[in-house]
Structure formats: C-alpha cells, structure tokens
Task: structure prediction
Amino acid sequence: MNKSRFHKFSSQGFTAICVIVLSLGIVSVTWLASVSEKTPAKGNAALLEAFRHVEVASVSDALEQIAGQRMYMTHRMQPIFASKFAGFAVTVLLKKAEANNDPAALNGMLAAIDQGQADSVYVMVVEDGANIAGMGGLMGTTMAARGFAGAVIDGSVRDVAHLRKIGFPVFALGMVPSTSVNHYRFAGANIPVVCDGVRVEEADIVVADNDGVVVVPRARAEQVLALAQEMDFKEHSMYPYIEKYKSIEEAVKKFGRL
Result:
C-alpha cells in the first residue's frame, strides 16, 4: 500500500476511533448523571435528617403554598404504630391477575426490595387492594435489614405483630390476613404511581408522622424544607406565647401562622 495512502487511512481511522470513544464517554457520563440524580446519595443525608425534624403538617402547608396542590395522603392511610420517618421513594405497582399460577408473577416486587438502598421508603400501589396485604413480615424484615426508612402501602398489610416487634414503620389502608400471591402480578418498579391520590415518582421524598404522609417532589425539596422549617419555628414559638397571653388571636397577629 502507498505510504501516503496508508498514513491518510491511519489518520482517518484514528480520528474515527477517537470520536466513537468520546461519544461513548459522553453517553456514559450522561447516564451516570441521570442515575445519580435519582439515586439516594450520601450528600442527601443532611436533607433527609432535616425533613425528619419538621412536622408533616408544616411540610404539607409549605407544599400547598409553593406548588399550589395537595400532596398529602388521605385519612385512610394509617400507621401500624406511632412513627416518624423520611426517605426516598422506591415505587412498586401491582396489577390484578386473578387465578394466575405464574411463580414469577411477583418477582419484580422482590427485586425492587433487594435493590433498594438505605433511607428508601417503599411505596406500593396495589390495584383495588384495600382487602389485599401488599406486604407482610418477610418483606418488612428485608426492608429493615437493608435500612429502609419505612413503607407506604396503597393496599393493606399483614404480620403486623412481627412488624411492630422489629419496629419497622408502615402506613397502609388497613390490616388483613390475605395475600397477593396468585391474585396479582408485578407491573413495574421505580415508575410514577398514584398512591392514595398522590403522584409519587422515584426518589421523591416521602415524609410521615402521626398526622399522615406527604410526598415532596425531589426538585422542590430544598425550597419546601426551608419554608416548612420557618413554619415550624413560628408555630413552636406560639405555644408559650398563647400560654402566657391566653389569646390565639394575638398569637396569630404576632407570628402570622395558623
């Protein structure tokens, strides 16, 4: 082969390889950035810790002011014991599939738990599942062992005595002895779901206490937290003021919080 032609080919080939490698690098970086945005990381620990120290009622009020919408679940969503937690949503959806004998029908549900990270909140929607236990002691024990913050089930829960014994907090629509096996099929994990009327996406922040459950869209978390902290401070300052002056009207006038 002519040396000049060989040199030209080599240069073009080298350039093409560089372009391919660079393109793959950009794709890889973009993919990793996308994953890191949705994955709970050590840098988010302080954010979660702060949410654990504000009242859910203040978070709900802050969200309504900032986003102009209801992001709290209804009175039906009740805790199996008094608890308070905050964490990043891991969503799971189950769809009805009566009389199915597929042993793999719920495998995706189990995988979502085994792949969940510490500080996750398991958010499960069981289609028409008020009388179906979406989770029980085995799933709760696994979540606790993996460091999940808690679980929220748009459906019911069973093995409540065991969950109370290990101290794993669960909010659910009720307590029933039934099973989802042979009645339901896994329909997706870490996808947008509507849990008791509230849209939940992967890595949204789920905050719960004795007043209920609120979902904070991850993109608004810092803004909502700041306002919720301000509201908490005002409210907690009002208690001694009311006790001293015996007037809620004067307290509201002074602090601007109700």
